[in-house]
Amino acid sequence: MILDPACGECALLKAAEKECGSQYKYYGIDVDKEVVFRNAKGRILVCNDSILPKNVKKNTDKYWIEKLGRVQAIIANPPWSSEKIYSREQLSDAGFDLIKGQYDSYVLFVDLAYKIIADGGYFAFILPDSLFDAQNISLREFLVRNTEIKIIARLGEKIFSEVNRATTVIICKKVVPTDICKTKCFRLTTDDRKAFLNGENTLYYYYYIEGFHKVTQSRFCRNGNYLFDIDIREEEEILISKIREQGVDWKDLFLFGRGVEISKTGNVVCCPHCGMAQGYKKKQLEEGKKSCSFCERFIPVTSDTVQSVVSKKRIKNSVALYVQERNLKSVFGRGQKAPCWEHQGGQREVHGEE
User: Fold this and answer.
1) Same domain, yes or no, for 61 and 127?
2) Residue 248: inside a domain, yes or no?
3) Label partner for 320 (CA 20 to 30 A): which of 47, 63, 250, 340?
4) Is 38 inside a domain boundary?
């Protein structure tokens, strides 16, 4: 059985059918009833929510195992959104484990895939490059320690039409890894990506002909934060190790974080419980409250609690930053003051308190 738990128009299932033929049964799950109806011919599709199925009180993985049995292979391009449509309490009650701190929705699908797949089964995911970010340390650690990571392929931006985020393909086998397991690592170069998008060659060509390289998977455990440092080849490890020993740890100099997105008005509220600043929606202002994006406790959203972080003039004791993006994204640390910005020609001068 091959399953896509977020099948949409079944593009991945159709590709699998073309490659593997009739030797497997093909299953898909999607919340869109019309999509399921359009694509049901020749495959078994279920209209439901993969993460929190309707009217199900037990753990999500147990529900799907009872309904489908153990799955041999999973392929998916799950939703990438960071917007939380489920509460942590709901997810915890449903048996999800990888929900500590900030996480994107695709983490839930990886968590589910591991639990419902048979021992020795494979799961392949198309994910955004946020997989490599600091917020996903726990996800990378889980994969490194509990699966054989067969392939990590960074493909870059615009691989999918109308999707500008950088894309990664990761393929794992559900088996406890050994110290000698190898991971095939690949990065599609900018020139090769342009050539691929122009139809000059297939991804298979660049993967096999231009070449992947192998690294020992256990290296991801040793390099700190379980980094998928796929650009470092095995023959370069000694040199890189010496550089790291004598180099500077950027974490000692900078605060790294995902940040929060705010509107052009620059209005935010600060959570009185965890101290984190964040934007809000018009409906939340009308209701007078919102759930904190970080600790999920309620924040009052009123004229008394809203603060503006946009300034049309330079603020005393501020540091100017130049931002080229249309939407200003800023990182707010616990207890820190938020930055402000003003227009200067075609750029924006951003002022934040030191």
Assistant:
1) yes
2) no
3) 250
4) no
Residue 249 and residue 244: Cα distance in Å, rounded?
Answer: 8
pLDDT digit string (tens) for the chain, length 354 residues: 999 999 999 999 999 999 998 889 999 999 999 989 898 888 999 999 999 999 998 999 999 999 999 999 999 999 887 666 888 899 999 999 998 877 889 999 999 999 999 999 999 999 999 999 988 999 999 999 999 999 999 999 988 877 778 999 999 999 999 999 999 999 999 999 999 999 999 998 999 887 899 999 999 998 878 999 999 999 998 888 888 788 787 778 887 766 677 777 788 999 999 988 888 988 999 999 999 988 889 999 998 999 888 776 777 766 665 555 444 433 434 444 444 444 344 444 444 443
**26 lies in some domain:** no
User: How far is it, in rounded angstroms, from Cα 63 to Cα 239?
Assistant: 50
In a domain, 124, yes or no: yes
**How many domains is the chain built from?**
2
Residues 289 and 155 in one domain: no
Distance in angstroms (rounded) separating the CA atoms of residues 222 and 244: 13
Among residues 178, 77, 61, the alpha carbon closest in space to that of 124 is found at: 77
Distance CA 131, CA 127 (A): 7
Stated as kind and residue range, the H or E segment containing 36 is helix 33-38
- Say yes or no: 202 and 269 in one domain: no
Range of the domain at 159: 49-236
Q: Are 5 and 29 in contact (CB under 8 A)?
A: yes
Cα–Cα distance between 199 and 248 in angstroms, integer?
43
Q: Which two tokens stand for residue 353?
A: 């308190």
